[in-house]
Amino acid sequence: METLQYFHRPTISESIGNGWYVMKKYFLWLFLAVIISGIFHGGPFQQNYEGGQSFPVLGLWIIVLILIGITVFLLVKPVFSFGAAMMFVQGVRDQKPELRYLVSGFKENYLNIVLAHLLRVAIVGIGLVALVIPGIIFACRLAFVPYLVMDKGLDPVQSVEESWRLTRGYGWTLFGLGLASIFIFIGGLICLVVGVFPAMILINASFASMYQAILTEKGKMP
User: pLDDT digits over 72-101, tens only?
Assistant: First the structure.
């Protein structure tokens, strides 16, 4: 595939700028990706209880809901989030995002998706528990794992190793993009809350742009 003419350098400003371009061009497709994958990002299993229930029954329901939430987080969420990541990569490559990626992981590559998600969560979690800063470093260096599993078909270990290789020298850049994303998200909240959706699209498109820019620079074209 030829290098896209509008392609950019792997910097924070150019990744966000390209993310803005991608958001405008493929807004509705990526809006769907954000909505569907976002359903599984925290708090979907909430229940209001009436005061008449006894504590043991309430406790049992809480345990059941927690177990369901953990199961969804480990076994369902990664399929949608990894699929959404691939849709953003398609947008960055100026290809029409394909909605099939949101569910294709249940039929294809499911084990690699789930195990890669578990491996990344475990590595980042251990780093956060240890001294916090290592966890932040790991999160930045492993940011490309979902893209590599979906885009390159790598297994969990390969995707972690390749993400670590690709992000070498770009840890601070990815950290800066993450900080910028926080302000973009806050800006979306300020815009009557509904601005959160464009903000999430822009954030995801910016990270996908960074992935493609580094991939191109390091000689690994799609």
Answer: 888 999 999 999 999 999 999 999 999 999
For residue 165, the model assigns a pLDDT of 95
d(CA 52, CA 152): 54
Q: Contact at 8 Å (CB) between 72 and 54?
A: no
Q: What is the secondary structure of the chain as a DSSP string? A: -PPPTT---SSHHHHHHHHHHHHHHTHHHHHHHHHHHHTTSS--------TTS-HHHHHHHHHHHHHHHHHIIIIIHHHHHHHHHHHHHHHHTT-PPPTTHHHHTTTSSHHHHHHHHHHHHHHHHHHHHHHSHHHHHHHHHTTTHHHHHHHH---HHHHHHHHHHHTTT-HHHHHHHHHHHHHHHHHHHHTTTTTHHHHHHHHHHHHHHHHHHHHHHTT---
Question: pLDDT tens digits, residue range 111-153?
Answer: 999 999 999 999 999 999 988 899 999 999 999 999 999 999 9
